[in-house]
Design a protein that fits this description.
With about 110 residues, this protein is an alpha+beta fold. It is built from three helices and five strands, in the order E-H-E-E-E-H-E-H. The chain has helices at about 15-20, 65-75, 90-95; strands at about 5, 25-30, 35, 55, 80. A three-stranded antiparallel sheet has the order 3-2-5, with helices on one face. The chain has a two-stranded antiparallel ribbon with strand order 1-4. The radius of gyration is 12 Å and the shape is globular. It binds FE3-S4 cluster. FE3-S4 cluster (F3S) binds next to helix 1. This is Ferredoxin. Its cofactor is [4Fe-4S] cluster; [3Fe-4S] cluster.
């Protein structure tokens, strides 16, 4: 089991989560972050840092977000390491809470 970045991160990418991760398990795409499931130690400190509430424990994922287990796993092999927070994605506050953003995910 691991923690998973879910849909609401898309087009928000606040990156606050990155600064508290003790094992640098976040990977960065253009408009989304993922957690490398092979690196995550399930400490959960990132969960409360996310202004978009986008990080969930795998077992707590609602049905429609379970696809993000696979997305985190696959994209963690492709995205680059990120270990310091940076400016949020353009118009992040506008996108926070907008449903059905999966179609906007840039891989
Ligand atoms: Fe995404 Fe939240 Fe981190 S929006 S980049 S999971 S702080």
């Amino acid at each position: 089991m691991t923690h998973v970045v879910t849909e609401n991160c898309i087009n928000c990418k606040y990156t606050d989560c990155v600064d508290v991760c003790p094992v640098d398990c976040f990977r960065e795409g253009e408009n989304f972050l993922v957690i490398d499931p092979d690196e995550c130690i399930d400490c959960a400190v990132c969960v409360s840092e996310c202004p978009a509430n986008a990080i969930l424990y795998e077992e707590d994922l609602p049905e429609e977000q379970k696809i993000f287990i696979l997305i985190n796993s696959e994209l963690s092999k492709k995205f680059n390491n990120i270990s310091r927070s940076k400016e949020a994605y353009y118009d992040a506050d506008k996108w926070n809470g907008i449903p059905n953003k999966l179609k906007f995910l840039k891989k």
